[in-house]
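I hope you will forgive my troubling you with a question about protein structure. Here, with my thanks, is the record as I have it:
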Amino acid sequence: MKKITIACGNGGVENNDLIEKVFYKHFQNDILQKNEDSAVIHDGSLVFSTDSFTVSPIFFEGGDIGKLSICGTCNDIAMMGAAPMYVSCAVIIEEGFDMKELDIIVSSMKKELDINGAKVVCGDTKVVPKGAADKIFINTSAVGSVLKSGISSNKISKDDIVLINRDIGCHGATIFTAREGMNMGGDLQSDCASLWPQVQALIDGGINITAMRDATRGGVAASLNEWAKQSKVGIVVDESSIPIKDEVKGVCELLGFEATNLANEGTFILAIKAKDEQKAIKILKRFEKNRYATKIANITQEHIGKVVIESSYGTKRYLDMPSGELLPRIC
């Protein structure tokens, strides 16, 4: 690869290839190589993460770029069993951007900060000439305090099962239909949401959590493949158990997408001990959007590093890491 392509930001094969061959090559260290949603630092008491947001359109059903910028970064903190605390906010704004829209975006950020119990403590603002950026880009970083230590995507074993908190693909489908001016009917909207309250409930409920990951770019397929490789296990997914809304199925059937590859912004997978399955599902279902919380996969010592998906007819196929650019600027 001699030039950066749009697929290098897809959260899949090309994205991982870019990170490994360029950034890991120069930045490699024992913290980074763990490849978690957030870096565990300060003797395991804190976690730290950063993310940038370029979503288009900046306003969409279920959220906007401001809401997304806090949910995305704070969710990465939450996935490590940590309470979000301190957030930085850096914005790049195109000349001529509407001040009223900026105020709406920042107000959305504040609402999500309140949900997470976090606050912005530093930031930066840049304004660039018209045409040098597309409206507004946001970067947020966050520090969180670890409440449950030992959560890691490198520790998954055959004693674990995989749950999901809700139906998949809503964010990706919402952004695509908004861009194309498509009306799928129903109540399709992004799943964009802060996940810390759900994680806190699981921790308070004594759930034995091995790993968690919010299934953003690359969707559930990318997250499961990353887990299989990092923990050197096989994962067998029951295809019929994956919850998908009819509106998302309609988008996928119309355009040839796989729902498991679509981005999510309020959907996460968690590996827990099998004995805690019903208790964890009961806790997740306390939350309004989680009525479809369920088990979707088992862990095996067969086909190490691979994800196999089994249909209701008993047929099996590999669920591969996504490749190519399905939907650029999804987050």
